[in-house]
């Protein structure tokens, strides 16, 4: 079970990194979502071996670790908030630069930097 | 063709909100709590945006003032966490304290954790609704500017 | 807590002045001056209460506390900062409108300027009142930062920006060195409280390294060789800044530090000899440069370097007169700076060669500045006489060589002061419009103070003795009086006057040669090294920037890959036996495994997804499969939240796709399908590292966990839902922090997508 869970974590993470390294912003956002998912899975995977009832339990029953659950909950909510922010950022970048491609953004940035340097030099 | 979706979604709004409230109230005792409650309430409003449009959805006060509601939620959260400090307790002390008797009305237990969870709910609700609202405004409203 | 009263009043000045300035621009200066005078009054009242200390515990478990002291040193320096501060703020009321008009800036910026001056004053009062190494550093950096803003106040002017940066870099870097010294001392003695450190240092002297670090911080602040070159450049600032920061406040801070920490330096004769040498070099260098400099503010700047060289010599000799010297020098130099500013405003000129003969048009200013100049060059009947008396007294005890050096220094001082005053006011008559009264009044007040101190030296004795006692930790027997006999001090003073007068009289003979020599040597000074260093750093940063920014993917990969390798390295160096356990898979786990497999398959499919909508659906597939995993793992709260969040997120993502223009999406889609080999490699390394790390972590779960304990405690916390109990009660502060993150994200969203955006 450990092996399977960690394989899934590794796979999700690898896919996430692969997407983050893409050239296009929507995919980059998707990649971060995947990475978030993999970390939530890792947190909760700690409770897989002894999972049982989650809620109010009688004495003697196995218990899913509530601390891990609440950590996972926290991670999900923060992940959601950050993803929402990321989506707005994608939208805003697109509106500002008219492109979804990171290399175009970089070109624009370099152009601005050079222009600024020229302005300083004058 | 008259779609059955808009009336259905309008029908669904209040039940979803009530379920969200119940998720909040019962969070201390069974599955639920502030996060899912806020997310569910946000989802109910999102449905209104999708089916009825921004103007219809903004008839509700809670939707128009979603971002300030999140501020209120943060105040509730921080207040519950740190007001006990004023009274000489450790931060994040909830009442009734473990050694005090519970106060209950019927099946409902009154606990300051409820206020805390309410704050969480308002914050999550505020975030979801604000993002939706801003997105909806952009899709519905202005023309796309051309990039440089 | 009366000790805090002057500090609090001084801190209140800037906000009060700002509020007053919002009401009416001119009110800010009067409000600020009133506030500083109130603080001065509070200080005088405290003076009657005698010395005292105040300790506010801050983090007692770490031995940190906020400590303040009221002794002679803090009283003397606070009075200096507050008194000169009040006058300078009033002066700026008359000076700044003209200056701002010339710079083409709105008149309301005057309030900003006065607010900054007052803030600097508060920082200075704080610096001299704290009695704790860490707070000392904090206050020191506070003065550095505000001085940056003040020197660079004319932000449109590149020269003034560069000067501000230079002073920030130099004083900032040296104050970091000071911090290193303070930390060394604090860790060595186990406390940051200054009296305790000094007490423990009495048995166990401080290390030379720490003392050198402290001294470097002080030298940087006081513009002593080799850190002196920031001061002349800083003259690009508006004149009120120069007259405050570079006479009574910022440069005084360095020498003040040495005086405050003097008991630590007392046993270290080696360090003190070094300081002595630096003091004499600064003295000579500053005086010579002041003799040839043409812009009159620069003359004063070099004179400041020289005068603080005197003060440094006095500290290094352990003289009782060191605090008195700084305190008397401050009003003289401030008055001369203010005079320079007034002359520039009236004539529009900044160089000695361009002005002259103003004594007929500006009689009051000429008279007042003559008194200040006499004070600076230590003529009798001014307070300045006593600053040289204590100086000569300290030198006379060390021998003839020191006396000769002192005589030459004092002679040079008289020569350049005469040159400055004569250059401004002497020579053929020139008529200019009268200066505004508010420009002249502060100079007159300062001159009056200097005269009062000179005529009634008894007034100076009590504060000077108290400050000397605070510095040296023993009662002082300092005497200030005129003696009409042939003692060494008097002979030296007379000799200095003769020398100065001679130099002034023959100035046309030696000035060209001297300026050529100094110009030649300045080519190889530390300033050149600084410029070279800055240039090299600039090149390096440009190179790095170009390299890094060229491709964003490389930037991400350059974080991800080393992190992954680091994780693998961690696994590599730990023994592998029993590191990985495969774990058992029972029948009950089949559903879980299936859900995991589904999630993994969906994740893999996202890589090949064509079209954005498909991509989003696959992402949500991953999310829902994981929600299923959570449900099977008996975590209903997580599963419920996950489902709801995932639904919302999918809809939002779809909304985003609707927002983006379709042709651009299409375009991006076509471009994106060409992955690079090294991206695959990076993803592989990161994934493998994540896999191995999580496997190792999951194989070593603690058997006895916190979770079991929370289950027991949840009942007591009146919350049958253990997860809710953990979230709201046991780890409640975490949740508060989390909510702050969510609200921050909300604020980000609202500010990025404003309802009525400008764009």
UniProtKB/TrEMBL annotation, chain A:
<keyword id="KW-0812">Transmembrane</keyword>
<feature type="transmembrane region" description="Helical">
    <location>
        <begin position="6"/>
        <end position="21"/>
    </location>
</feature>
<keyword id="KW-1133">Transmembrane helix</keyword>
<feature type="transmembrane region" description="Helical">
    <location>
        <begin position="28"/>
        <end position="48"/>
    </location>
</feature>
<dbReference type="Pfam" id="PF00420">
    <property type="entry name" value="Oxidored_q2"/>
</dbReference>
<comment type="similarity">
    <text>Belongs to the CPA3 antiporters (TC 2.A.63) subunit C family.</text>
</comment>
<keyword id="KW-1003">Cell membrane</keyword>
<protein>
    <submittedName>
        <fullName>Na+/H+ antiporter subunit C</fullName>
    </submittedName>
</protein>
<dbReference type="InterPro" id="IPR039428">
    <property type="entry name" value="NUOK/Mnh_C1-like"/>
</dbReference>
<feature type="transmembrane region" description="Helical">
    <location>
        <begin position="68"/>
        <end position="90"/>
    </location>
</feature>
<keyword id="KW-0472">Membrane</keyword>
<dbReference type="GO" id="GO:0005886">
    <property type="term" value="C:plasma membrane"/>
</dbReference>
<dbReference type="InterPro" id="IPR050601">
    <property type="entry name" value="CPA3_antiporter_subunitC"/>
</dbReference>
From TrEMBL, chain B:
<protein>
    <submittedName>
        <fullName>Sodium:proton antiporter</fullName>
    </submittedName>
</protein>
<keyword id="KW-0472">Membrane</keyword>
<keyword id="KW-0812">Transmembrane</keyword>
<keyword id="KW-1003">Cell membrane</keyword>
<dbReference type="InterPro" id="IPR007182">
    <property type="entry name" value="MnhB"/>
</dbReference>
<feature type="transmembrane region" description="Helical">
    <location>
        <begin position="110"/>
        <end position="132"/>
    </location>
</feature>
<dbReference type="GO" id="GO:0005886">
    <property type="term" value="C:plasma membrane"/>
</dbReference>
<feature type="transmembrane region" description="Helical">
    <location>
        <begin position="65"/>
        <end position="90"/>
    </location>
</feature>
<feature type="domain" description="Na+/H+ antiporter MnhB subunit-related protein">
    <location>
        <begin position="8"/>
        <end position="130"/>
    </location>
</feature>
<feature type="transmembrane region" description="Helical">
    <location>
        <begin position="35"/>
        <end position="53"/>
    </location>
</feature>
<dbReference type="InterPro" id="IPR050622">
    <property type="entry name" value="CPA3_antiporter_subunitB"/>
</dbReference>
<dbReference type="Pfam" id="PF04039">
    <property type="entry name" value="MnhB"/>
</dbReference>
<keyword id="KW-1133">Transmembrane helix</keyword>
<comment type="similarity">
    <text>Belongs to the CPA3 antiporters (TC 2.A.63) subunit B family.</text>
</comment>
UniProtKB/TrEMBL annotation, chain C:
<feature type="transmembrane region" description="Helical">
    <location>
        <begin position="681"/>
        <end position="698"/>
    </location>
</feature>
<dbReference type="InterPro" id="IPR050616">
    <property type="entry name" value="CPA3_Na-H_Antiporter_A"/>
</dbReference>
<keyword id="KW-1003">Cell membrane</keyword>
<feature type="transmembrane region" description="Helical">
    <location>
        <begin position="165"/>
        <end position="189"/>
    </location>
</feature>
<dbReference type="Pfam" id="PF13244">
    <property type="entry name" value="MbhD"/>
</dbReference>
<feature type="transmembrane region" description="Helical">
    <location>
        <begin position="134"/>
        <end position="153"/>
    </location>
</feature>
<dbReference type="Pfam" id="PF00361">
    <property type="entry name" value="Proton_antipo_M"/>
</dbReference>
<feature type="transmembrane region" description="Helical">
    <location>
        <begin position="639"/>
        <end position="660"/>
    </location>
</feature>
<dbReference type="Pfam" id="PF00662">
    <property type="entry name" value="Proton_antipo_N"/>
</dbReference>
<feature type="transmembrane region" description="Helical">
    <location>
        <begin position="401"/>
        <end position="422"/>
    </location>
</feature>
<protein>
    <submittedName>
        <fullName>DUF4040 domain-containing protein</fullName>
    </submittedName>
</protein>
<dbReference type="Pfam" id="PF20501">
    <property type="entry name" value="MbhE"/>
</dbReference>
<feature type="transmembrane region" description="Helical">
    <location>
        <begin position="586"/>
        <end position="607"/>
    </location>
</feature>
<dbReference type="InterPro" id="IPR046806">
    <property type="entry name" value="MrpA_C/MbhE"/>
</dbReference>
<feature type="domain" description="NADH:quinone oxidoreductase/Mrp antiporter transmembrane">
    <location>
        <begin position="131"/>
        <end position="413"/>
    </location>
</feature>
């Amino acid at each position: 079970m450990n092996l399977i869970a960690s394989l899934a974590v590794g796979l999700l993470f690898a896919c996430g990194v692969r997407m983050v390294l893409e050239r296009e912003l929507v995919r980059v956002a998707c990649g971060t979502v995947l990475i978030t998912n993999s970390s939530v899975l890792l947190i909760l995977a700690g409770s897989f071996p002894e999972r049982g009832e989650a809620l109010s339990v009688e004495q003697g029953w196995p218990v899913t670790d509530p601390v891990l659950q609440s950590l996972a909950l926290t991670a999900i909510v923060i992940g959601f908030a950050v993803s929402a922010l990321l989506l707005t950022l994608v939208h805003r970048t697109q509106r500002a630069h008219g492109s979804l491609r990171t290399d175009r953004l970089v070109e624009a940035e370099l152009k601005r930097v050079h222009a600024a340097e020229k302005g300083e030099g004058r | 063709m008259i779609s059955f979706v808009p009336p259905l979604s309008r029908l669904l709004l209040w039940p979803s909100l009530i379920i969200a409230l119940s998720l909040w109230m019962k969070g201390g005792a069974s599955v639920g709590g502030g996060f899912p409650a806020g997310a569910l309430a946000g989802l109910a409003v999102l449905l209104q945006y999708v089916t009825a449009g921004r103007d219809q959805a903004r008839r509700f006060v809670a939707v128009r003032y979603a971002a300030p509601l999140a501020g209120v939620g943060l105040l509730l959260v921080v207040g519950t966490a740190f007001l006990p400090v004023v009274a000489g307790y450790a931060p994040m002390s909830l009442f009734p304290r473990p050694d005090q008797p519970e106060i209950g009305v019927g099946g409902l237990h009154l606990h300051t954790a409820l206020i805390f969870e309410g704050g969480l709910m308002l914050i999550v609700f505020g975030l979801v609704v604000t993002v939706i609202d801003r997105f909806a405004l952009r899709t519905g409203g202005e023309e796309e500017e051309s990039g440089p | 807590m009366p000790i805090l009263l002057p500090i609090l009043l001084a801190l209140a000045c800037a906000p009060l002045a700002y509020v007053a300035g919002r009401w009416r621009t001119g009110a800010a200066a009067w409000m600020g001056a009133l506030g500083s005078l109130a603080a001065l009054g509070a200080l005088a009242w405290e003076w009657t209460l005698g010395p005292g200390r105040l300790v506010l515990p801050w983090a007692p478990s770490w031995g940190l506390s906020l400590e303040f002291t009221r002794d002679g040193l803090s009283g003397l320096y606070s009075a200096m900062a507050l008194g000169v501060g009040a006058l300078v703020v009033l002066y700026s009321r008359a000076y700044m409108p003209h200056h701002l008009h010339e710079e083409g800036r709105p008149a309301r910026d005057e309030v900003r300027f006065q607010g900054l001056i007052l803030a600097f004053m508060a920082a200075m009062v704080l610096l001299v009142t704290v009695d704790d190494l860490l707070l000392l550093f904090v206050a020191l950096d506070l003065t550095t930062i505000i001085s940056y803003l003040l020197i660079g106040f004319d932000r449109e002017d590149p020269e003034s920006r560069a000067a501000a940066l230079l002073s920030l870099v130099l004083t900032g870097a040296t104050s970091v060195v000071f911090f290193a010294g303070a930390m060394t001392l604090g860790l060595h003695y186990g406390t940051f409280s200054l009296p305790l450190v000094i007490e423990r240092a009495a048995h166990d002297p401080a290390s030379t390294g720490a003392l050198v670090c402290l001294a470097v911080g002080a030298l940087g602040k006081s513009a002593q060789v080799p850190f002196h070159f920031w001061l002349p450049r800083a003259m690009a600032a508006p004149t009120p800044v120069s007259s405050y920061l570079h006479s009574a406040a910022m440069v005084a801070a360095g020498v003040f530090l040495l005086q405050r920490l003097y008991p630590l330096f007392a046993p270290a004769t080696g360090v003190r000899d070094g300081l002595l040498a630096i003091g004499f070099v600064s003295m000579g260098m500053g005086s010579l440069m002041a003799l040839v400099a043409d812009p009159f503010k620069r003359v004063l700047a070099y004179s400041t370097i020289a005068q603080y060289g005197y003060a440094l010599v006095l500290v290094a000799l352990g003289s009782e007169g060191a605090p008195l010297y700084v305190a008397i020098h401050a009003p003289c130099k401030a008055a001369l700076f203010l005079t320079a500013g007034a002359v520039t405003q009236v004539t529009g000129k900044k160089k000695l060669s361009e002005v002259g003969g103003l004594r007929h048009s500006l009689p009051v200013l000429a008279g007042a500045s003559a008194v200040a100049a006499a004070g600076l060059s230590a003529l009798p009947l001014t307070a300045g006489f006593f600053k040289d008396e204590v100086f000569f007294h300290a030198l006379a005890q060390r021998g003839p060589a020191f006396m000769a050096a002192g005589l030459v220094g004092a002679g040079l001082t008289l020569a350049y002061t005469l040159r400055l005053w004569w250059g401004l006011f002497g020579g053929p008559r020139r008529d200019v419009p009268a200066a505004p009264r508010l420009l002249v009044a502060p100079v007159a007040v300062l001159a009056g103070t200097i005269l009062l101190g000179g005529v009634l030296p008894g007034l100076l004795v009590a504060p000077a003795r108290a400050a000397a006692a605070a510095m040296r930790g023993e009662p002082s027997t300092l005497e200030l009086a005129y003696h009409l006999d042939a003692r060494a001090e008097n002979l030296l003073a007379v000799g200095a006057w003769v020398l100065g007068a001679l130099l002034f009289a023959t100035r046309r003979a030696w000035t060209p040669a001297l300026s050529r020599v100094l110009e030649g040597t300045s080519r190889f000074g530390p300033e050149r090294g600084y410029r070279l260093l800055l240039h090299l750093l600039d090149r390096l940063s440009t190179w790095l920037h170009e390299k890094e920014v060229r491709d964003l993917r490389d930037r991400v990969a350059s974080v991800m890959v080393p992190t992954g390798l680091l994780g693998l390295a961690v696994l590599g160096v730990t023994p592998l036996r029993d590191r990985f356990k495969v774990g058992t898979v029972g029948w009950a786990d089949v559903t879980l495994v299936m859900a995991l497999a589904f999630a993994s398959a969906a994740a893999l499919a996202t890589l090949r997804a064509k079209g954005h909508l498909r991509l989003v659906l696959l992402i949500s597939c991953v999310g829902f499969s994981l929600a299923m995993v959570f449900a099977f793992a008996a975590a209903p709260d997580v599963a419920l939240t996950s489902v709801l969040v995932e639904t919302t997120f999918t809809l939002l993502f779809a909304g985003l796709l609707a927002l983006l223009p379709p042709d651009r999406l299409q375009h991006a889609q076509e471009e994106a399908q060409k992955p690079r080999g090294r991206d695959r490699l990076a993803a592989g390394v990161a994934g493998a590292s994540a896999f191995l790390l999580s496997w190792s972590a999951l194989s070593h779960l603690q058997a006895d966990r916190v979770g079991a304990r929370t289950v027991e405690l949840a009942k007591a916390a009146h919350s049958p839902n253990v997860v809710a109990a953990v979230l709201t009660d046991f780890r409640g502060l975490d949740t508060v922090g989390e909510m702050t993150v969510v609200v921050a994200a909300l604020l980000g969203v609202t500010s990025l997508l404003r309802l009525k955006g400008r764009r």
